[in-house]
Design brief:
single chain, 444 residues, Rossmann fold, 5-stranded mixed beta sheet, 5-stranded parallel beta sheet, 17 helices, 15% strand, globular, binds NADPH dihydro-nicotinamide-adenine-dinucleotide phosphate
Length: 444
């Protein structure tokens, strides 16, 4: 049995009931086969892959808090510190009822390669809780965040592990967590990113993941002699990534006709109104059913459906495994040119293979959504030098990073004979740097 197959089998055996983690490991290791096979003897002797798929450490802890009725609630908190070969652990905190250890491990594993691809000195980690901020009062969210940080603060620090936002963790949650960290540890340091602008946050961090997604998509289209100008785009999600992806796509001349949340989706033939979307989601924290009040020409549908709308480009920006094989078939039948992942692992492996084998340009999340973590690293730099850069400075660095990422993965794919396969390119380009750093640091 090949070394790759052995390690995949062992991961499945030793991490039962963690299908998302198995999926992420399989996706990465399958595409690294060409590199691993060429170095099999050395990698096997060094147990390189076993070290790569085992987190350096992981924490699971109790998070008790009191709700508005005086009832004590108990959630579970997680932080997985996956790999620090190239820098302090970096990765977001997800607050969603679906969170479990396997989901945090899949996200932390992906984060290693994503962070490496940015070219910045950040290792891979991820955390979160099964707490659901939806429908909670501000006081309840604060009570949860303070309790969560009371435990988490033992394991993180500006030079060791720097968490950020993710699903369910926005500016409000980061603020409450930062306040509690400062109170307990007694230091004002850049321990979290995604902070508010008045206390160490970076301009353009809010926009970074969505904007970065469009910068890399634009660069990929440019390499094929195309552009976003005049293209029709379908987007899923209505959160941070989706909102700013829609905004940048429209600034670059495309028309975005859909968005969605966990209960339904919107079709707006005139192009999504970003100001209305922000008002509904960021200010009112309401459902997308409200969108029709702002745009009477639009349609609201319950359930899933954005991938049924005919478009040139599809940008999944909600959550994992939201684009399956049937969706991929519909997109191809409707003539889609490119799919770029704003979310983490939104496309199933089967759907990815179908899209690629039907000539669709496919940019995986670990490259396409790396603008968020890259800008988080820029926030860390600004905190270290105690300066704030302008929006334009940060945005232009972000553009440079996304353009570089595209060429790194494009080159890696070509070098190994997989031209145009950006999944293979991203995994190899991310992997090579991490392996080099791991080898240099000995068996640790
Ligand atoms: P938000 O919480 O801001 O938005 C998430 C959106 O996806 C919401 O519209 C939400 O709907 C929808 N959604 C969440 N879970 C589900 C589900 N199980 N089924 C259907 N819809 C769902 O999160 P972000 O925009 O920050 O994150 C979106 C994705 O992008 C995630 O995969 C995240 O890991 C990834 N990502 C985020 C980065 C960032 O900087 N924020 C950086 C890199 C990746 P509803 O409003 O109903 O909850």
């Amino acid at each position: 049995m090949s070394y790759v197959d052995e390690v995949i089998e062992r991961v499945v055996r030793e991490n039962p009931n963690e299908p998302e983690f198995h999926q992420a490991v399989k996706e990465v290791l399958e595409s690294l086969r060409v590199v691993v096979d060429a170095n099999e003897e050395k990698f096997r002797k060094d147990a390189l892959l076993e070290r790569l798929v085992n987190p350096e450490r992981q924490f699971k802890f109790r998070v008790p808090w009191v709700d508005d009725k005086g009832q004590v609630q108990v959630n579970t908190g997680y932080r997985v510190q996956f790999n620090s070969a190239i820098g302090p652990y970096k990765g977001g905190l997800r607050l969603h009822p679906s969170v479990n250890l396997g989901i945090i491990k899949f996200l932390g594993f992906e984060q290693i390669f994503k962070n490496s691809l940015t070219g910045l000195p950040i290792g891979g980690g991820k955390g979160g809780s099964d707490f659901d901020p939806k429908g909670k009062s501000d006081r309840e969210v604060m009570a949860f965040c303070q309790s969560f940080m009371t435990e988490l603060c033992k394991y993180i620090g500006a030079d060791t592990d720097v968490p950020a936002g993710d699903i369910g963790t926005g500016a409000r949650e980061i603020g409450y967590m930062f306040g509690q960290y400062k109170r307990i540890r007694g230091v004002f340091e850049g321990v979290l990113t995604g902070k508010g602008l008045t206390y160490g946050g970076s301009l353009a961090r809010t926009e970074a993941t969505g904007y970065g997604l469009l910068y890399i998509t634009q660069e990929m289209l440019k390499s094929k002699g195309m552009s976003l100008e005049g293209k029709t785009v379908v987007v899923s999600g209505a959160g941070n990534v989706a909102t700013y992806a829609i905004q940048k796509a429209q600034q670059l001349g495309a028309k975005v006709v859909t968005c969605s949340d966990s209960t339904g989706w919107v079709y707006d033939p005139d192009g999504i109104d970003v100001a209305a979307l922000k008002e509904i989601k960021e200010v009112k924290r309401a459902r997308l059913t409200e969108y029709k009040n702002y745009r009477p020409n639009s349609e609201y549908h319950e359930g899933k459906g954005v991938w049924t709308v005919k478009a040139d480009i599809a940008l999944p920006c909600a959550t994992q495994n939201e684009l399956g094989i049937e969706d991929a078939k519909t997109l191809v039948a409707n003539g889609v040119i490119a799919v770029a992942e704003g979310a983490n692992m939104p496309t199933t492996m089967e759907a990815t293979e179908y899209l690629q084998s039907n000539g669709v340009f496919f940019l995986p999340g670990k490259a396409a959504n790396a603008g968020g973590v890259a800008t988080s690293a820029l926030e860390m730099s600004q905190n270290s030098e105690r300066l704030s850069w302008t929006f334009e400075e940060v945005d232009s660095k972000l553009q440079g990073i996304m353009v570089n990422i595209f060429h790194n993965l494009d080159d890696a794919a070509k070098k190994y004979g997989f031209e145009g396969n950006y999944v293979v390119g991203a995994n190899i380009a991310g992997f090579e740097k991490v392996v080099d750093a791991m080898n240099a640091q000995g068996i640790v």
